[in-house]
Write a structure and sequence with these properties.
The chain is α/β, with parallel strands linked by helices. It contains 9 helices and 8 strands. The strands form 3 sheets. The chain has a 4-stranded parallel sheet.
């Protein structure tokens, strides 16, 4: 499959030279060491076409445990039991549902793919890492991600950027134009500190989206009676 067929309209902002370099590098490494698995590395682009993108969520690295990272920032697989969710996803989930809504009264997509299909490009600054080694591939991805952010923000000044953690914040300098840039600690920080992420991350984002587009992201669905 050609890159234009896989990435679709994202090829308008993906630097082709950087993409070729990345694909060449991936072809040479041991695929069994990759997080996420090689078919899912660029999954975020397919889940959120460029024409629909209103928000970029930028994190750090994929989950470094084998079989956990899905290619969607913070997401877990659909069959992950509730008590086995990754700590970062647990933090994000609690903030997104505003803490106070009982879990049996909501429907929440632990894959977070539903967020992507509503217009959030959900990526890490490094799209891969080696199993058990956070940050192991960052230097390889740095230029690809920097040029992506620069090209995207140059092309469309209406996209909101939410930067999770210091590594993501280091890419702020590549954002040429945006109505709002939000910076927050990475969910892993809150998990380590046993603290809650401010739910204002999500409420402020929706307020801005309402002003810009007259639309909001549905981060969860609240059921009328709850689940038995």
């Amino acid at each position: 499959m050609k890159a234009s067929e896989y990435f679709g309209d994202w090829m308008d902002v993906i630097d082709t030279a950087e993409l070729r370099k990345i694909l060449s590098w991936i072809s040479t490494i041991d695929k069994t060491t990759l997080c996420p698995s090689s078919p899912n590395i660029f999954k975020a682009f397919r889940a959120c076409p460029l024409k629909d993108c209103k928000v970029v969520f930028l994190g750090q690295d994929p989950y470094p445990q084998q079989g956990v990272a899905t290619g969607i920032l913070f997401g877990n697989s659909k069959d992950t039991p509730e008590d086995k969710l990754s700590p970062s996803l647990q933090v994000v989930k609690e903030a997104a549902i505003n803490y106070e809504i009982p879990h049996n009264r909501i429907e929440f997509d632990n894959t977070l793919e539903s967020w992507a299909t509503q217009g959030i490009l959900m990526i890490n600054t490094a799209f891969t890492c080696e199993i058990g080694r956070v940050g192991s591939h960052f230097d390889m991805w740095r230029s690809f991600t920097a040029k992506l952010i620069h090209n995207l923000s140059s092309r469309d000044g209406g996209i909101i950027y939410v930067l999770f953690g210091n590594q993501a914040s280091s890419f702020k300098k590549y954002i040429v134009n945006s109505p709002k840039i939000m910076e927050v600690y990475h969910p892993a920080y809150f998990a380590r500190q046993n603290k809650k992420m401010p739910y204002s991350v999500f409420t402020e984002l929706n307020q801005e989206l309402q002003k810009l587009y007259g639309q909001q992201i549905e981060f969860y669905k609240e059921t009328e009676y709850g689940n038995c």
